[in-house]
Amino acid sequence: MKKLILTAGILCAWLSSQAQDSTKIRKLKFEEANLVGSYYTQNGNMAAVTGGIGSEKLTDIGSSLNLTFSLLDKKLRKNTFFVEGAIEQYTSASSDQIDPTTLSSASRTDQHIYPSIVWTRKNDQNGQTLGLNASYSTEFDYKSYGFGFQWAKATPDNNGEFSAKVNVFLDKWKMILPAELRPPGYPTGAEEDSKGIPYKPRNTYSASLGYSRIINPQLQSMILFDPSYQEGLLSTPFHRVYFNDNSLRVEKLPGSRIKFPISLRTNYFAGDNLIFRTLYRYYLDTWGLQAHTLNLETVWKINPFFSLTPHYRFNAQNGIRYYAPYQAHDPLGEYYSSDTDLSKFTSHFGGLGMRVSTPGGILGINSWKSMEIRYGIYHRSTALTAHIVSLAIQIK
pTM here? Predict the structure, then answer.
């Protein structure tokens, strides 16, 4: 991962210098690049793969590169292109229990790859921004294709903005089943034995409606409503469910779900060196899940080159109506899951970020504008604990 970040950093610095030195022949201007590397680890003892019991140990190493380019068209409208590529390599103890009779189940170790591209065009004369996006994502048991449209319009006084986004994700999930629930001759799902496993669709249609406002020089706020509708295979076919009569089946959930999240963000600038950011989010869906999330973040600029960012997030949810723990489901129920992500719990996530930004660049590289290191620890009332460390680099 370090080699990837260093190589991409050198490439972005070269692109920046070429764009600046060759403006006469280059219409497309390099704006910036953001490189992020992260390490995530978690542990718990309520894995959904084994019916709400067993190890949830998982490690994930990820890296992403985001490039931003811009150009002015004949009508002097700014066109911006965001190109991102990301890859994650993970190891999961719970997924290794899909087939405990083999040395390595499907998804014990796998890669998650997801490139995307976004185009926006801003017209300063009418305050309107239009945009399109496309994305692709793949992992051992699914493929996803996404595309969308976005629009924004500034208010006449330029202190507010209305925005709208529409996205569609067309997914295909491979029907990998637990070892003891496979029909005779059914493939295991491992790389060398996956032919013949059917795919099932899972489609998501989402929208986002927002309004942001500069209330005064110190206070900014934004309200967002992000409804979405899902249809298709919404359960995970290799999640086991154990019933109170000692029978065993795979997880089964309704074939549709509507989500209604609404959130309020505020930024308060308490002088030149202190910023307070807050977020409150309320979530409701047709499976009976309700959740409240509160996020607090402070940016403390110690001097012009160094800042600290303590952050904290609290979440509480009541769980869906179809959840029950290990061996607690009634076998006569129509739908059932023992996935603790869908259960009642509270969680806390807190940490600290440190950012360095110097006018002359970092380590003598003028184009290397900033570097930020973040650490966070997550704890959930279901006895799940996680740690994450990330490194972000900005090149201009």
Answer: 0.88
